[in-house]
Request: fold
Amino acid sequence: MISLYLFYVLINFSTVTTSTNTANTLSLDVACNQLVEVMSDQSSGAMTYSNKYKIPVVDSNGKMMFNIGLKRNGSISRLSLMPAMKCQMNTQKPITITFTDETEFEVSQYQGIESHIDILIDDKLKSKMMTDNILSIAFDGKKYPYNVVLKPNQSRVVQDIFNCLQD
Reply:
């Protein structure tokens, strides 16, 4: 009789654990649904994933405000910084992304795009973005150098969106 009771308790315990794991997965899906939108190209059926809401960041000197955008189309992921006002970027110089552990990545932006920053995220940078928060993004404009420093909550949102894009 006691062994039957223990068996019953173990069965109930395991179902509670399973439903908790399901609840965690569901809460992650709900969070991703609130952060990421999906667009479908009707002709090709290609899906593009991007952040739903703008993430406004300001240059450390207060010269310009930018909106951070993250996008994934197939296996290609991109990070972009769109200026709030018209300005031109210097596409010849690298962009420096600094993470909170002071690791720096120098990356190039797509050539020919001077209206905003558009960075193709390679596997090494992707791995770093999934595990650490971005502290700052530094790049040159035609007139001024810019250093965008993210607030802790902004860098966490960028990491959360990026992780949702990779699922």
